[in-house]
Every structure is written in structure tokens, then in C-alpha cells.
Amino acid sequence: MNKLYKGLVVLAGLMALPAFAAVNINTATQSELEMVKGVGPAKAKAIITYREANGNFKHLDELDNVKGFGKASLEKLKEELSVGPEKLKK
Predict the structure, then answer these.
(1) Which DSSP string do the residues of 46-82 spell out, in sequence order?
(2) Which residues of 11-36 are buried (b: 16+ CB within 10 A; e: fewer)?
(3) pLDDT digits (tens, 9 = 90+) for 49-63
């Protein structure tokens, strides 16, 4: 392999890392929340509004209390969201 090709492979791998990180709903901005598939502007705003009124989420299950979220939404998004430090998905 030539050096340029190796460099491009490494760069592509590094750029893909953020795509696998769970978004922390306690610290994410509206635009960061909107990047999660299934979370549009209304749901992102509802998360932030709830967080500002009630403090940080302790468990993802608390999203059930947020307008626009239910058990089905939570089930679809639980791998994409976190309430603690961002971590890589398995």
C-alpha cells in the first residue's frame, strides 16, 4: 500500500468514530440531538425544555415523560442516546 492510501484509510476510520458515539441528552445541543435519526426539531426542543425544567435525566426511561416520546420511540433510540458520558457503542 502506498502512503497516501494508508493515510486515507486511517482518516476515514477516524471520521467514522463520532457516528458510533451515543448522544448525551443531558449535554447535547438542539442541533446535536437533531442529528440522531428519529429526533427532529420538535423532539430535540422537547428534550431540552424538559431538561431545563426538571434537571438532568438519570435514566433514558425518563424520556417517556417528554412530549413526543413513548415506549416505541425510546426503544428505537436507546442505542443512540445516553444520559452519562459519551461512550462508543458495542
Answers:
(1) HHHHHHHHH-S-SSGGGGGGSTT--HHHHHHHTTTEE
(2) eeeeeeeeeeebbbbeebeeeebbeb
(3) 999 999 999 999 999
Closest by CA to 47, choosing from 20, 73, 65, 70, is: 65
Q: Give the three-state DSSP class for 88.
A: strand
Amino acid at 28: A
Residue 2: its pLDDT value, please? Answer: 65
Structural domains present in the chain:
28-79 (1.10.150.310)
